[in-house]
Amino acid sequence: MSEKFKIIEVKSEIGAGTRGASLGVEAMKIASLDLKSDFFRKNESIEVENVNELLFNSAEHTHAKFIDGVLIMEERVCLEVYEQLFDDFFPIIMAGDHSTAYGTIAGIKKAYPKKRLGVIWIDAHADFHTPYTTPSGNMHGMTLAMACDIDNLECKINDPRGETIEYWEQIMNVGTPGAKIYPEDLVYISVRDLEKPENYLINKYGIPNFSAEEVKKMGPVAVAKEALKLLDHCDLLYVSFDVDSLDSRISIGTGTPVPNGLTVEDAKTLNVELAKSPKLCAWEIAEVNPTLDTQNSMAESAFEIMEATTKSILARPVMVD
After folding, report:
1. Opening angle at CA 113, ends 111 and 117, nearest 5
2. With a threshold of 0.90, does the pTM exceed it?
3. Domain-wise residue ranges, the chain
4. pLDDT tens column, 282-292
């Protein structure tokens, strides 16, 4: 690991149901100016080319909307994350919709194929659907099923057609063939908007989930320490922070706000504490949607969390490979 940063901008919203998440990166840059921060002057960034123009077409794949475009984005993000890790940079990923977090996971696995990766997923949603179980067809709800190479046929309610299945199988092999993580190496924080097929997988694999209420009760520092302890057997860690993990009174500037979430302060402390782990190899923030937020307050909160987390990563002990 190293203390050199590279910001990877992924202005993609191909996997979302509500349009506008692709503008989240620029909204956070505007927030940094309003907060008089030199974060984006100090840290180098690189942008992954997106395929948002496909959104002007009608979605052909009912149970995996724009899966052809999602596949392209997963491959591009995977390659960028892999290259930055290979060049000894620490990737901070600023993403639009959360589907491309699978590309991040695939890129880490491609860079470290023999290492076991633990994932801490801070989100209102489990993102554990598949084309066979999704109620919406939106692929930002399938990210972790892709990462775990899970179809969840036990809970099948949809019958996706041939080409959809072909794309789904191709997605599973982005970066390296098959599963990138095990469900046992996953910890949820603030997940609270779940459907039955996702509950089934969470119960089947015993995936821990710390509610916002538990974060408040235990304190974010204690929850972070507990989450890290649960993944102590992993060689590397990746934290993915979706802003809808925040309470819906705060997270107005995101596509799918849900009540009973984290406060900004708890989210900040949580991420700062998790970032102290020398095993952390990438950190991601996703789903800021400024089209839903006239004050840009969501982007300001998101930027504050990102800046504080970055400082924490810089101050941590460096893990020797």
Report:
1. 90
2. yes
3. 5-315
4. 999 999 999 99
